[in-house]
């Protein structure tokens, strides 16, 4: 016995230009029928929360699937899969397409060569699938945009839930973020962690989807923007604060990556305030209470307005 609910969408050309569109969503559980063999024209993420089964790719060899797990079904790749007939499984699937899939693949969020991905926890991805399900009512005027935005969120949630993203890898990223503005090369950072440059590159690519150089550069430029916007430090001093001894090189790099010179960025984004900005990340669910001064009380006798 099994249960199935699914809904499919047909976004228009303007929605596709947003980068990602959701083509369908479904929830199924139980001893589901075998899927395929088949080949799709779009991507599908199948999030398996409980149970187990198997997956077979183009070569026909079966890979065991044990929940929590993700099945990547990618365009043009023949596949065949199904749950164990005795235990079944609980799955949520989301179909999607769009030009942004190429970039997500380049960054490692979509893995065509790895169709079965163990997850540490399916709770986060399933919560996003549930939001897509709730948005899927036919009278929702925001349907295409709301579900398309949720696909971006789903890809992030799936990346975060991967079982191979170990705490050790996250610790390396935390250390890089902490030391990003020190005048150190990538080789220096690798040596500090007892790694070769190639090992550090592989670790950062696996967890963050980019090279150590790009990861460090993003943090440095973010900090430089904060200093330019929140202080009156000269550009040369800002450059030194974020790890660049040559202010001319810093200005060229900033201009190339940001699209404007540091001085122009400051002119547009300057927010100098008494006491400076806070480094503490606020909790959106618990905003600070701002005490406002009470207006002075008028102690003079009340005078009624003139009457005509």
Large-scale geometry? globular
Overall pLDDT level: 88
β-strand number = 9
Query: For the report, how would you describe the main beta sheet?
Result: 9 strands, antiparallel
Low-pLDDT regions: none
What gap, in angstroms, lies between the N and C termini?
A: 84 Å
SSE pattern: EHEEEEEEEHEHHHHHHHHH
* Continuous helix count: 11
CA radius of gyration: 26 Å
The proportion of residues forming helix, as a percent range, comes to 25-40%
Please state roughly what percent of the residues sit in beta strands, choosing from under 5%, 5-15%, 15-25%, 25-35%, 35-45% or over 45%.
15-25%
What class would the helix/strand composition place it in? alpha+beta
What does this structure look like?
With 308 residues, the protein is an alpha+beta fold. 39% of the residues lie in helices and 20% in strands. The chain contains 11 helices and 9 strands. Strands 1, 2, 3, 4, 5, 6, 7, 8 and 9 form a 9-stranded antiparallel beta sheet that branches. Helix 3 packs antiparallel against helix 4, helix 5 crosses helix 7 (197-208) and helix 9 packs across helix 10. The protein is globular. The model has no long low-confidence stretch (mean pLDDT 88).
């Amino acid at each position: 016995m099994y249960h199935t609910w699914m809904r499919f969408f047909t976004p228009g050309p303007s929605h596709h230009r947003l980068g990602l569109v959701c083509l369908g969503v479904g929830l199924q559980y139980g001893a589901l029928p075998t899927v395929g063999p088949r080949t799709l024209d779009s991507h599908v993420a199948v999030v398996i929360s409980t149970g187990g089964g198997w997956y077979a790719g183009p070569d026909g060899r079966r890979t065991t699937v044990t929940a929590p797990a993700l099945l990547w079904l990618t365009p043009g790749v023949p596949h065949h899969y199904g749950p164990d007939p005795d235990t079944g499984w609980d799955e949520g699937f989301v179909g999607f397409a769009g030009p942004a899939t190429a970039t997500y693949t380049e960054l490692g969020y979509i893995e065509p060569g790895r169709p079965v991905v163990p997850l540490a926890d399916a709770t986060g991805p399933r919560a996003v699938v549930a939001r897509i399900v709730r948005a899927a009512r036919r009278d929702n005027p925001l349907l295409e945009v709301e579900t398309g935005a949720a696909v971006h969120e789903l890809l992030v949630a799936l990346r975060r839930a991967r079982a191979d993203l170990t705490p050790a890898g996250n610790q390396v990223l935390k250390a890089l973020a902490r030391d990003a503005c020190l005048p150190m090369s990538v080789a220096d950072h690798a040596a500090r962690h007892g790694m070769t440059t190639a090992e550090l590159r592989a670790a950062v690519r696996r967890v963050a989807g980019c090279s150590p150089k790009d990861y460090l550069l993003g943090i440095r430029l973010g900090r430089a923007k904060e200093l330019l916007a929140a202080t009156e430090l000269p550009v040369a001093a800002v450059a030194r604060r974020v790890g660049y001894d040559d202010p001319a090189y810093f200005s060229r790099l900033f201009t190339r990556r940001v699209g404007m010179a540091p001085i122009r960025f400051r002119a547009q984004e300057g927010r100098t305030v008494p006491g400076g900005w806070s480094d503490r990340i606020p909790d959106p669910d618990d905003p600070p209470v701002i005490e406002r001064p009470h207006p002075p009380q008028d102690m003079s006798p009340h005078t009624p307005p003139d009457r005509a």
